[in-house]
TrEMBL record:
Domain HTH iclR-type: 2-64
Phylogenetic placement of the source organism: Bacteria, Bacillati, Bacillota, Bacilli, Bacillales
The protein's name in its UniProt record: Glycerol operon regulatory protein
Keywords for this protein: DNA-binding, Transcription, Transcription regulation
Organism superkingdom: Bacteria
Length: 250
């Protein structure tokens, strides 16, 4: 029984790597089994919709069942549960507060936070909202809007100034977003709260869309150039690990 399961999974892997399809003979040779054995396994997989037969040469490809399975997996992903251990490690490694946010309209919502027991009080708390243009996490997400959506965002928003560093000029924001999109790293240089700096990175889902972002946040006195240089590689790795768990292929 275990051998049959192993062979069936091997067939699925073969077909995944050969999207144009394979015949029974090719599959049996790869499995090192008789054609009758390969045909029996294929018939069983076909019956459940995991493979389907195409063309005059009766080659096999992956079936439509995988679309259904993919949808079920995606619908049951819990990004907070998936991200939590990575956020805890990032906070421990950097010694700073770590946030996870999600996009909601033209705002971000803080959906998880790992504190570092600091006495520094900052704006964020789970469930709280913030604007896209003045936060590192917001800009990390905004930078991955398509060009038309970014243009609409800039044209239809009156950017509120929270500090003297808040970017309120549309062209200046556009230039920064272009850099963020290339670097996959975003900064909040006291743009939302005076004395607070953060560095953020986008989280990509199974479609490589950006609906989430994470950040490392701390007081300006600790977030020095040297500290940022050590934080950024850890932040990138964390963002990539969470993205992979959500099905992203970089």
């Amino acid at each position: 029984m275990i051998q049959s399961v192993d062979r069936a999974l091997h067939i699925l892997e073969l077909l995944k790597n050969n999207p144009k399809g394979l015949g029974v003979t090719e599959i049996s040779k790869s499995l090192d089994v008789a054609k009758s054995t390969a045909h029996r396994l294929l018939m069983s997989l076909e019956g459940y919709g995991y493979v389907q037969k195409f063309g005059k040469d009766a080659s096999y490809r992956l079936g439509l069942k995988f679309i259904e399975m993919n949808q079920v997996v995606v619908e049951n992903l819990n990004v907070v549960e998936i991200a939590r251990p990575y956020l805890e490690k990032l906070s421990a490694d950097t010694g700073e507060i770590v946030h996870l946010v999600m996009l909601d309209g033209y705002e971000i919502v803080y959906i998880d936070k790992v504190d570092n027991n600091s006495t520094i009080r900052i704006y964020s708390q789970i469930g709280r909202r913030a604007q896209l243009h003045c936060t590192g996490v917001g800009k990390a997400i905004l930078a991955h809007f398509d060009k038309a959506s970014i243009t609409r965002f800039i044209e239809n928003n009156d950017f509120r100034s929270y500090t003297q560093n808040t970017i309120i000029d549309g062209q200046a924001l556009l230039s920064e977003l272009e850099k963020i999109r290339l670097d996959e790293i975003s900064f909040d240089n006291e743009e939302h709260e005076a004395g607070i700096q953060c560095v953020a990175a986008p989280i990509k889902d199974h479609r490589n869309h950006v609906q989430y972002a994470i950040s490392v946040t701390g007081p300006l006195t600790r977030m020095t150039k040297e500290k940022l240089e050590t934080c950024i590689p850890k932040l990138r790795e964390t963002a990539q690990n969470i993205s992979k768990q959500l099905g992203s292929i970089f």
